[in-house]
Amino acid sequence: MAQLWGGRFTKETDKLVYNFNASISFDQKFYKQDIRGSKAHVRMLAKQGILTEEERDQILGGLDSILADVESGKLEITSEYEDIHSFVEANLIDRIGDPGKKLHTGRSRNDQVALDMKLYVRDEIEEIDAELKKLLEALQVIMENNVHTYMPGFTHLQKAQPVTLAHHVGAYFEMFRRDRSRMADIRKRMNTCPLGAGALAGTTYPLDRFYTAELLGFDEPTRNSMDSVSDRDYVIELLSAMSTVMMHLSRFCEEIILWNSNEYRFVEIDDAYSTGSSIMPQKKNPDIAELVRGKTGRVYGALTSILTTMKGIPLAYNKDMQEDKELTFDAIDTVKGCIALFTGMVSTMEFRKDVMEASAKNGFTNATDAADYLVNHGVPFRDAHGIVGRLVLTCIDKGISLDELPLEEYKEISPVFEQDIYEAISMKTCVEKRETYGAPGPKVMEQIIAGNKEYLKNN
């Protein structure tokens, strides 16, 4: 059992206790970050005269060789070691001897693990952001190609008013754009370096924490050594932001599942993103959409877990905080995988434009426009509302849409109606007249799409 402590103890740790306490099974995930942090620490120690240049070079060479051997598979990270820190240090000492024992000068595992976790989370935020950008690019293509694809807009899952597919998908574009903004906020706020905080109270060595922060790409060192080793706000913020990403994905998946059903038939999901039934040969199931929807709870669970873990911890570091890793790692992998799969699914999905437009007509989504027609001809809106309600009842009784109702029947309910009512309630007119900023009118949508294009180019 390779450990970084033991001098004060008179007997071996119980094997069950050792296994329960050890973190090597999961913290090995950030071996790159641990070695990167150690290299910056060593460079700073040499700069401050705490290590000689020769010792610095020996240690850096040893760390580089460990990294190369782990990545090539020549060196395996095993449960022989308590954690990733003891793995790196033990192997370093084996390779270069006594200089390796000086690696930990002026450092604690508390500030070391805080650094490793920050570096790892920071790297993963950039990867999540890259996946979100790919998703936005896929949505942008759909929007560009469907400015004139008419479909029903819904409230309460009831057909409400006509919109376009570009406008509907554009709503999700805005959601995922905000998700990227949240990721950027978290990265900016967390970008302070905890290394040099020691166990909780700094160190008597003349460390240059600003230099270490600079080497590792941080804006500055953390400002309080106790907070440095006990802060996991950035993990909670990331899990919260990822939960929001999954909520957005899940909402879109729910709509795709509905749209893919026989009752809607708005979309055809590509075979590569569907599965069949073991007993019913006719089935083509939207399993990817369902799984993304299902995995949302998994990410929510990680957020709840870390909030519960952190709520009762006094300053400064406590072993409970080791629980920040496994669920966070799993949530990150889940979110990245879900975004990538969802992007592939929507990129290959076929939209049935004719079915969408027919659904908008048959759902009386143009009823508001019929009322507006009357208002524009001098009828008070409340009266117009009642007149069109009666028209809808008539159409329901006849099993037809407002577009199909004969003019004489319009006139029986209100003599104000003329032949131009059909033009006024056409899907094209209903959508094109909605030109307030943010509405589905084509001029507005083209402006929004151009803005999206510029955003994706610059961000």
Identify the CATH class of the largest domain: Mainly Alpha
Amino- and carboxy-terminal Cα gap: 48 Å
Helical run tally: 19
Strand order of the largest sheet: 1-2
Tally the beta strands: 6
How many domains is the backbone divided into? 3
Which structural class is indicated by helix and strand composition?
mainly alpha
- Percent of residues in helices comes to 55-70%
CATH topology of the largest domain: Fumarase C, Chain A, domain 2
Order of helices and strands: HHHHHHEEHEHEHHEHHEHHHHHHH
CATH architecture of the largest domain: Up-down Bundle
Structural overview:
By secondary structure, the chain is mainly alpha-helical. It folds into three domains: 91 residues, Orthogonal Bundle (Fumarase C, Chain B, domain 1), CATH 1.10.275.10; 219 residues, Fumarase/aspartase (Central domain) (Fumarase C, Chain A, domain 2); 97 residues, Orthogonal Bundle (Ribonucleotide Reductase Protein R1, domain 1), CATH 1.10.40.30. Helix content is 62%, strand content 5%. It has 19 helices and six strands. Strands 1-2 form a two-stranded antiparallel ribbon. A two-stranded parallel sheet has the order 3-4. Strands 5-6 form a two-stranded antiparallel ribbon. Helix 3 packs across helix 6 and helix 10 packs antiparallel against helix 11. It is elongated, with a radius of gyration of 31 Å. The model has no long low-confidence stretch (mean pLDDT 94). Pathway: Amino-acid biosynthesis; L-arginine biosynthesis; L-arginine from L-ornithine and carbamoyl phosphate: step 3/3. It catalyses: 2-(N(omega)-L-arginino)succinate = fumarate + L-arginine.
